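Lecture notes, part 5. Sequence design as translation. It can be helpful to think of inverse folding as translation between two languages: the language of shapes and the language of residues. The source text, in structure tokens, appears below.
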């Protein structure tokens, strides 16, 4: 099968949610299919990055999204009906490049990633389009809009209403869509054309590490620290949970690991208080393997939390909020501990720090849970089923 992937960000290095998902989709699908990638990119893509992706594709095309174009798009977006998340990625040069690619190759299906890319394929009459929404942006914004005030609140409310309206139109327009969790499918109306395809974990990269070699009283939070829900999570952890936990465990420390920490995250660094902001590191697994406990105190967000799956795979017992577990659906008390108030979150961490046998039990159960349910090879198989169903539907409609 020949597939044209349409993406808003170049999928290497696979650091963010959508780039991680696309990268592993390409890896899984390229074993059986021929893939052309047509990607936008906000930053120049290095030859090394291009080579990594080109090894999985028969053709790679990249179009730069210029900063001047972004500013123009956002300015025009004040009076538009489309979400800013969609308008931001409007680039006429990309449309031209995509049309050229599609005109000169016979594709079986187009795979579009996120609502950001849908204007480029909305009215096409050629190959059928499979849409990977990954998550419901409306579900993400539903929580975030309630956590800000003033003019920010007005902006979030406007974007939330636009996104909800747009996502409803997307679900009606396209016959085959994928999301990463059941919670996101429900947020999109639970229609049968929306399938749940969870993210996977590379179990070789995120190998299991037992209690030996783990450092005492060490917590880790991993993730892209330029992403607002991650920033919000660690600020809440440091401000609300940390004083309660340090009162019981004065020597406990927290390592915040992830690229592009914001100024607010960097300001949390305080060696005397046991908090280290490490930023981007060569290997996240190094810290997951050393940690006593992995924490995921998300206050907002949608989709599936890769950080939870990766911690589970590596044997770091997890303490998370309900929002962090919403996409993962681990069983509380068996696969991870779930707590939502600052007091309950601190108590859950303290109890685990005091109980090595409980930590080992959670770690073993969680690793088994991930290995059984979250494999990228299975992800690729489910995507292939969607493509085949689209092909069949397209051929039937032409008879």
């Amino acid at each position: 099968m020949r597939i044209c992937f349409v993406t808003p960000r170049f999928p290497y290095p696979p650091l963010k949610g959508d780039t991680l998902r696309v990268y592993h989709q390409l890896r899984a699908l390229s074993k059986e299919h021929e893939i052309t990638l047509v990607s936008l990119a906000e930053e120049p893509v290095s030859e090394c990055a291009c080579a990594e992706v080109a090894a999985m594709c028969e053709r790679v095309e990249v179009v730069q999204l210029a900063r001047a174009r972004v500013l123009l798009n956002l300015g025009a977006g004040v009076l538009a009906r489309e979400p800013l998340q969609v308008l931001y990625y409007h680039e006429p040069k990309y449309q031209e490049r995509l049309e050229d690619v599609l005109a000169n190759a016979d594709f079986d299906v187009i795979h579009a990633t996120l609502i950001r890319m849908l204007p480029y394929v909305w009215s096409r009459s050629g190959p059928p389009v499979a849409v990977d929404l990954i998550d419901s942006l409306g579900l993400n914004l539903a929580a975030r809009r309630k956590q800000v005030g003033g003019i920010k609140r007005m902006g979030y409310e406007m974007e939330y209403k636009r996104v909800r309206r747009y996502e409803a139109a997307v679900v009606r327009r396209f016959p085959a869509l994928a999301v990463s969790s059941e919670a996101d499918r429900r947020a999109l109306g639970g229609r049968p054309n929306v399938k749940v395809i969870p993210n996977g974990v590379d179990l070789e990269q995120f190998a299991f590490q037992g209690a030996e070699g783990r450092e005492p009283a060490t917590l880790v939070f991993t993730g892209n620290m330029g992403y607002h829900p991650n920033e919000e999570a660690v600020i809440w952890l440091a401000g609300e949970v940390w004083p309660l936990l340090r009162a019981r465990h004065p020597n406990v420390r927290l390592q915040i690991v992830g690229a592009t920490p914001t100024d607010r995250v960097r300001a949390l660094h305080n060696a005397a208080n046991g908090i280290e902001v490490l930023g981007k590191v060569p290997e996240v697994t190094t810290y997951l393997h050393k940690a006593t406990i992995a924490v995921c105190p998300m206050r907002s967000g949608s989709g599936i939390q890769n950080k939870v799956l990766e911690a589970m795979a590596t044997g770091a017992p997890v303490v998370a909020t309900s929002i962090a577990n919403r996409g993962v659906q681990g069983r509380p008390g068996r696969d991870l501990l779930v707590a939502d108030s600052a007091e309950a979150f601190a108590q859950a961490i303290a109890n685990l720090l005091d109980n090595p046998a409980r930590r080992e039990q959670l770690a073993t159960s969680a690793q088994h849970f991930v290995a059984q349910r979250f494999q990228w090879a299975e992800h690729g198989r489910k995507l292939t089923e969607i493509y085949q169903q689209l092909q069949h539907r397209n051929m039937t409609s032409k008879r």
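The translated text above is only one of many valid answers, since several sequences can fold into similar shapes. The chain is about 45% helix and 15% strand.
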